[in-house]
Amino acid sequence: MLNTETIQSLIDSGEGYNVEFKVRVPSKVRELTEEICAFANADGGYLLIGVDDNGQVVDTNLENDKRSAIQGSISEISPALHCELYSVNLVNKTVWVIDVPSGKDKPYIFSGSIYVREGANSQKLHTAEEMRSFFQECNKIFFDHIPCHWFNIYMDADEQMIKDFRTEAKLSPSTPDKQIFENLELFTENGAAKNGAAMFFGKQPERKFPHAITRCVLFKGTNKVYIIDDKTFGGSLYQQYLQAMSWLESKLQVAYKIEGAGPREEIWEIPLTVFKEAIINALSHRDYYEQGASIMIEMFDDRVEISNPGGLLPVVAKDFGHKSMTRNPLIFGLFTRMHLVERVASGIPRMQEAMREANLPEPEFHTEGMFTAVFKRQITNSANYDTVNGRVNDIVNDTINENEQAILNLLATTPGLNASEISKHINKSLRTTMRYIKVLQDKNLIEFRGAPKTGGYFLKNKTYGI
What we know:
Distance between the termini: 79 Å
Largest sheet: 6 strands, mixed
Strand content: 15-25%
Number of helices: 16
Radius of gyration: 31 Å
Mean pLDDT: 84
Low-confidence stretches: 380-398, 462-466
């Protein structure tokens, strides 16, 4: 029971997330109960009856029938909720207090509806997404915690995935699988594997979760008219991450910088770290209840978009980039154990910082319905090669892939090799090598000199300008 000083302090502070003023009990007592239900679904609070909107105390009296009506209405909240109702005397005026605890059995429902506290107001949840988000905030129905009765982790798990997890999580080889699974809380109280366990360790979870896939699409131009490449990746979520990253690396432009005798430095047009963050975020935080959409990675001439079903949860939206709450804590935790997540709520700032360091625009984020991260590309068709000291030294044109670059480096040190000799040096078949050579010839970077049977390939010039 609050004392007089505490009640006065609440009044002086005004209405807010935990405090609501009522001059009198409304004619429809249910309106009061809706407020009580909202407080129970939040952090609890106090309804002060006998205080107006300006914080002025007005004398009020609750007769037995009114108090009985309030208690009767509160009893309609499900599950049962115990609230204290008592009076406090302030400067010879009576204020009635309804002390509402933060319920331990959320969500609390009144007349078939869920009420929540939003700032200084109580709101009724109307849409399925609002209700789902609230349930998830209350640790009630995380999709990845639901029992997955068809999945037996000891028989249906991908053994390679378990090995990969052990390696990346730096687990002792002597620790039995059973102990690891139990420590990771992959089972419900009844011993059934959870959905998250099936999606993370299953061989082909997309057979039962057809929406739990990652689709990668390359478009020509800046709109979705002409598709150049379209790949869909299933399997465990970690495998989807690896496959999506591999697909991106095969499409992104990369430059190489070689200084002295040291190893060459890869310079990607967009830092790979931002895609690692974005893909892990998508796999961890997507709304798996939404079965009509999947994770999409879409590449255009001017940008790359990574999107997943489900906008921001309300608590995250209020402090985007600084607060973190996942729809799938089990999946998120498993990625964390694999050291693919550094710190909670640090993903967005890291992506922003990586883009700034690369002198690129910060990513754009669209958060309604679908969560989409947009990364701008800066395309260049220029090349700058310099064969100083017998090697390609400067930043190589973004459109040159690793094997083409190997040929350029080889011809910088050993000019005049024929196709057969080049194929042996780069460890590729003659047919594949000829394809790379043709690309480099089309780009006007190398040329063939000499007779067809005795000639060889040379860098066309020592320096290639724009």
